[in-house]
Amino acid sequence: MSKLMKSKIFTFLILAIFFTGCTVTDVEPFADATVELRRAIIESGAVTAETMIVADKTKTSSTEKSDADKFLEVWQDRVKLLDVLLGYSDALAGVAAAGAEAGQTTEMLGNSVMKLADIVPGTGSAVEAGVQLGQILVRTGIQIKTHRDLGQAVGEALPALTEIAKYLEADLNDLRLLYVKASQDIENELYNTYGKRESDRNKLLAKRDEFRDLMFNSLNDTNIEQLKKIEELLAFMEPEHQEYEQKYVEIMQKRTSTVNMFNKAKVGIRAWIQAHEELKLAIEQNRRPNVRLILVTAQEIKDTVDRIRKQ
Amino acid sequence: MNVEQAANTLERILDRINESIDDDAKLRIRQELIEFKRSLPWEPEYAELRRFAEDAFDDLGHSINQSVLDRMRRRAKEFEKYVETISAITSRTERKIESLRLKYIQAVTTAAKEVADAVRAVRSSIEANDLPVASEKVEESLGLILKLMSDITKEV
Question: Which of A41, A71, A112, A182 is an S-S bond match for A51, by CB 3.0 to 4.6 Å?
Fold first, then answer.
């Protein structure tokens, strides 16, 4: 091999070693977290709408558009926004995947060229050295390009995403207000339906306690008879009371877990934008992004949403 | 609780309603109104207090829905411009993915073809027992590989 060729190879080798350190950033965790975040926010909107529809039914019907309808009109745009965010994170993941895919193609083609070189006696190792070097350079070139494309997209998107995150947080706070308001309407209607019976039952319970106290002082047939009648009435009222209690507990449990979901989703938004900032820094500093927080948060959001749906 | 006591309790709750309270405060007052109604006896003399509490509960609820929906509508306009920005970045990134795929597959295919041609030339020279030419062809093939790879690297 001539001196000129050796020096060429040496120069390329140095460049290759330098650029090989430029790895394709792992975007998958960010893309996965975006999927979970989208699901949590859409679920928050769905639970709010469902509860508002039930609450609207408790009010006297009017020709005016219901609050649930008005909310759904506004909410449709948010769903579109979330789809845009998902498209964005998919595109980032796509760049990384395309880089990896192109790298594999390079390797496969390089290998076939080396097989071809093998059939030429005495030239195999020379061609092999060149092909291997070429593979490193092409792979490195792909990584640099991928790196640059990712860096550009992530950097450009960050200011807009930071604003979107603030708005989504404000949205979740507003969803909580709409949801709790609707849940209170349902709770109020439950009391309007069962309140009179519950009040009668409470009076009977007080009366029973009164007779029990009386019996300690003067045990007679009249008292015993009265107490029996009260107990019979209470037993008659028990199924309806149980029904009321069960519905009340359901409303309150659902309220607690749904408000919890809204709060989790808010934390998720903060973690998501932090993960995006971390992605930007990781690309700039050419290192793997720290994705632990977003993975943990995404899992928590997923678990909370799953729990809500099971209720 | 007699009617007068109930009226005082209700008055204390309703006194806290004014224009400056936020939606969370309205929710808290609504919850207190539910509790107040629950504490009222069901006798006819309490019916009017019950109705006052119910009306205040509904008015506060209406006010919450109105202010929340207004805020969300206002935010929708702001969202629009950011959605456009992100959509533009996404489209550009998607186009880059396609170009990345095509560019490298084309470049590597060309490189492979050129090298295969060079290796064939080396083989022909060896078969013709012309070793000096074969040696030149080996150098040529290496030069080709390096030039093509160098071109690809420059492209990015």
Answer: A182
Domain assignment present for residue A31? The answer is yes
Residues of A in contact with B92 (CB under 8 A): 153
Q: Domain range for residue B59?
A: 3-155
Yes or no, beta carbons of B93 and A199 under 8 Å apart: no
A 199-238 near B (Cβ less than 8 A):
199-200
| ipTM for the predicted complex | 0.76
* Choice among A154-158, A182-186, B73-77, B105-109 with the minimum mean pLDDT: B105-109
CB burial of residue A98 (10 Å; 0-12, 13-18, 19+) = buried
Nearest CA in chain A to B122: A120
- Over residues A173-194, the pLDDT tens digits come to 999 999 999 999 999 999 999 9
Who among B116, B146, B148 is closest to A116 (CB)? B116
Distance from CA of B128 to the nearest CA of A (A): 13
Owning domain of residue A205: 27-306
- Tell me if B55 sits within 8 A of A115, measured CB to CB: no
DSSP state of A62: -
A22 within domain boundaries = no
Q: Which residue has the higher pLDDT, A217 or B35?
A: B35
Q: Check if the beta carbon of residue B39 is closer than 8 Å to that of residue B5.
A: no
**A16 inside domain:** no
The number of distinct structural domains making up chain B is 1
- The winner for highest mean pLDDT among A250-254, B80-84, B109-113 is A250-254
